[in-house]
Design a protein that fits this description.
387 residues, alpha/beta, 7-stranded mixed sheet, 4-stranded antiparallel sheet, 14 strands, 39% helix, binds pyridoxal-5'-phosphate
């Protein structure tokens, strides 16, 4: 193994420094380790950044998505429309409510759910539409919201990879009834594990608050007699610790800088990759949609280099990659086994699962790293395209 940091550009590397360490140390020295003032401060800062009326911290994005659907009344026998190309959490959230995820193929230009196919998938059992802003590029929220509104269906936005992304200048997560964010280590900001649900709907946000904390009828600060409460709902413990929230507050202060660096790196990479024949590079903008540049996602041409071999050769030359996502979700062992989805139903998601890869553009990537990523990629692309 080499210790030369020049040699390895990982896909993700969290930006954590002295401020985050001091903030956690302060929490550890104090009397409140969970559901306290740091959590409330993180929620306030996050609501301000996204212009959401309400923000609720959760243990991660998966639990936020689960609570959003459950609080909207999704139950056994219901259907939830979900894109075929997404993180497994988007579908598991519906499944955990006892509902059936009904998968819909994505648009080849963006990787986002195809609104026309959504319209065709709505049935009498449909209870909600889950949209996912694929690797940070917002979905067509004009088409999706008008469709959802005309059918009276709530939309939940999976914004796990889309912190900082906008559609027509409005932050994602604020179009649907709820938007859910992730603070997993590779995301735009991290709290180690963590999530946030935003909503413009006060009763929904209140329900989510209750459900993330056991279903207590009174929060800690609402109890007149200390320790005395009743339980009026079947809740979970999906809360965030004060240490995680303290890190989140520090990270939010650095987010504008992180986003700027991501945008610059992604622009350099997209421009360089655009000269390679046959390579499809997913865009930073699409109509009113403006990406948060979670990564630079490319789709290798049909009959082109083998994706797995290609990313292994990049890996050998020190360029870390990721795959979003290695399986079209309806064709995963669990969902295919349970519901019998077929590959022909999802031609675009299947192609992306087979031929796409994601390059790093996060703040740990410097300008010289971008040049190295481009050179390495182009070299292997030309060589493996010929064979
Ligand atoms: C990361 C991610 C999730 C899961 O988030 P966790 O915080 O790890 O639960 C869900 N959906 C998408 C699109 C993601 O990128």
């Amino acid at each position: 193994m080499s210790t030369d940091s020049e040699r390895e550009i990982p896909f993700g590397r969290p930006q954590l420094g002295e401020q985050e360490r001091a903030a956690v140390a302060a929490v550890l020295s104090g009397p409140i380790l969970t559901h306290g003032p740091k959590g409330a401060e993180f929620e306030d800062v996050f609501a301000r950044f996204t212009s959401a009326a309400h923000a609720v911290t959760t243990s991660n994005c998966t639990t936020a998505l689960h609570l959003a659907l459950w609080a909207l009344g999704v139950r056994s026998g219901d259907e939830v429309i979900v894109p075929a190309m997404t993180h497994v959490a988007s579908a598991h959230a519906a499944e955990h409510c006892g509902a059936k995820p009904v998968f819909v193929d994505v648009d080849s230009a963006t990787g986002n759910i195809n609104p026309e196919l959504v319209a065709a998938a709505v049935t009498a059992r449909t209870k909600a539409i889950m949209v996912v802003h694929f690797v940070g590029l917002p979905c067509d929220m004009t088409a999706l919201m008008s469709l959802a509104d005309s059918r009276g269906l709530p939309v939940v936005e999976d914004c796990a990879a889309a912190l900082g992304a906008g559609f027509g200048g409005r932050h994602v997560g604020t179009f649907g009834r709820a938007g859910c964010f992730s603070f997993y280590p590779t995301k735009h900001i991290t709290t180690m594990e963590g999530g946030m649900l935003v909503s413009g709907d006060a009763p929904l946000a209140a329900r989510v608050r209750k459900l993330r904390a056991f279903g207590y009828n009174k929060a800690l600060n609402e109890r007149t007699v200390p320790g005395v409460y009743d339980v009026d709902a079947l809740g979970h413990n999906f809360r965030m610790s004060e240490g995680a929230a303290a890190i989140g507050v520090c990270q939010m202060a650095r987010l504008p800088q992180f986003l700027e660096t991501r945008a610059r790196n992604a622009a350099t990479l997209r421009e360089g990759l655009s000269t390679l024949p046959g390579l499809r590079v997913l865009p930073a903008r699409h109509g009113p949609a403006c990406s948060s540049n979670f990564c630079v996602n490319v789709v290798l041409p049909d009959g082109g280099p083998d994706r797995d071999e290609f990313l292994m050769s990049l890996q050998r030359d020190g360029v870390g990659t990721s795959v979003h996502y290695p399986v079209a979700l309806p064709l995963s062992a669990y969902y295919r086994g349970k519901y019998g989805w077929q590959a022909e139903q999802f031609p675009e998601a299947s192609r992306m699962a087979r031929q796409s890869l994601s390059l790093p553009c996060a703040p740990h990537v410097g300008e010289r790293d971008c040049q190295r990523i481009l050179e390495t990629f182009s070299q292997h692309y030309r060589r493996q395209g010929e064979s």
